[in-house]
Amino acid sequence: MNLTMKGFLLRGLAAGAAGGLATALFVRFVTETEIGWAIGFEDASGLGAPAGEPAEFTRNTQHWGGMLAALIFGTLLGIVLSVVVAALHDRISSRDEFGRVAKVAFAAFVATSLIPAFKYPPNPPTVGDPDTIGQRTASYLLLIVVGIGIVVAVGWAWKQLSAKGIDGGTRFLAGAGLAVVLVTAAYLVFPATPDRIEPPNSEADPALVVAETAPDEVLDAMLTNAREIGDESYRNPSDPTEALDLDEVSSGADLVGTPVAISTTKLAPQAYTTMVWSFRLRSIAGVALMWAVMAGVLGLLLDRANRSSQLAAQPAA
C-alpha cells in the first residue's frame, strides 16, 4: 500500500477519536448510570442535605471531564496504533488492511489492558487503601511491560510454528498453551493486590442530615421503616459516632436535623463484591470497546486508501 506516515497518522487520529467518543458515551450511559440514578433521586427527594462543605467538582463536571479524558486518550491511542501498524505493516500477514489492524489492536488490548487488569483490576471510588496506590500503580505498569513481552513471545512462537508447516488446531493449542503458561508465571511472580474486597469497616462521619423541608408523611415512614429493620444510619446529634435511640423519637418530625451516615458497611459482603466486580467488568468492557471501534475505523480507512491507490495505479483505458 502506497501511504505515507502522515496518511497513517491522520487516519489513526480519526480512528482514535471515534474509539474515544464511543468509550466516553459508554462510561456516561453505562458505567455512570446507576450512580446518576442515585444522585438524581437524592436531589429530587429533598430528604437530605450535605453536611459540611460542598464537593469541589459537581457530578456534572466530573461526567464531562471523564468523557473529555476518554476522548483525548482514545485519540492519542489511535495515533500510537497507526504508527505501530505502519512500522510492522510488511511483517503482518493479512488479506486486507482491516485484518492487519485487527491483529495489532487485539494483541495490544491483551498486552496492555487484559493481562494487567485481571491481576490488578480497576477499583471504584472508596475501594482500596490510598496508601497502596503507589505500589499498585508501579506493579500495574510493570505488568503492562511484561504483557507486551508475552504477546511478542507468543507471536514469535506462532511464526516459528507456521514456518515449520504446523497450523490449524495444533498451532492454536500450542500458542494458547504458551500464553497461559507465561501469564500464569507472571501472576505468580507479581505480588497480590494489597486491597481486599470487603465493605469498609468505618464509623463514617454522617454524610447527610434530614432536611427541614421533608414532608411529615415521609418522615413518619422513614421512622417506621427504621424501627422495623433496626436501622442504625440515623446518628445521635450530640455524638454522631453513636446510633440514634429510635425509642426516644416520638414522631418522624423529630428526625429533622438528625445526621444520617451513608456507608456501605450495611451491605452484605456478597452484594458488595458483586458491585465492585460489576464496576471492574464494565471498566474493562469500556476499554475493549475503545480498541474495537478504533481498530474497525482505522482498518476501514486503510482499506479504502488501499483501494484508491490500486485504482490510481491502473493504466487508463
Helix content: 55-70%
Gap between N and C termini = 23 Å
Shape: elongated
Tally of helical runs: 8
Order of helices and strands: HHEHHHHEHEEEH
How is the main sheet built?
3 strands, antiparallel
Count of domain modules: 3
Radius of gyration: 27 Å
Oligomer: single chain
**Unreliable sequence segments:** 37-53
- DSSP E strands, number: 5
Would you tell me the structural class of the helices and strands?
mainly alpha
Topology:
Blueprint (H helix, E strand, L loop, with lengths): L4 H27 L1 H13 L2 E3 L8 H29 L9 H23 L13 H31 L4 H22 L18 E3 L5 H14 L5 E2 L2 E5 L15 E2 L8 H45 L4
Antiparallel strand pairs: 1-2, 2-5, 3-4
Helix pairs in contact: 1-3, 1-8, 3-4, 3-8, 4-5, 4-8, 5-6
Question: What report would you give on this structure?
Answer:
This protein is mostly helical and 317 residues long. The protein has 3 domains: 1-127 and 269-317, no CATH class; 129-196; 208-262, no CATH class. It has helices spanning 5-31, 33-45, 59-87, 97-119, 133-163, 168-189, 216-229, 269-313; strands spanning 48-50, 208-210, 235-236, 239-243, 259-260. It has a 3-stranded antiparallel beta sheet with strand order 1-2-5. A two-stranded antiparallel ribbon has the order 3-4. α1 (5-31) packs antiparallel against α3 and α5 (133-163) packs antiparallel against α6 (168-189).
Summarize the model shown.
This protein folds into three domains: 1-127 and 269-317, no CATH class; 129-196; 208-262, no CATH class.
Features:
3 domains, 317 residues, elongated, three-stranded antiparallel beta sheet, mainly alpha, two-stranded antiparallel ribbon, 5 strands, 8 helices
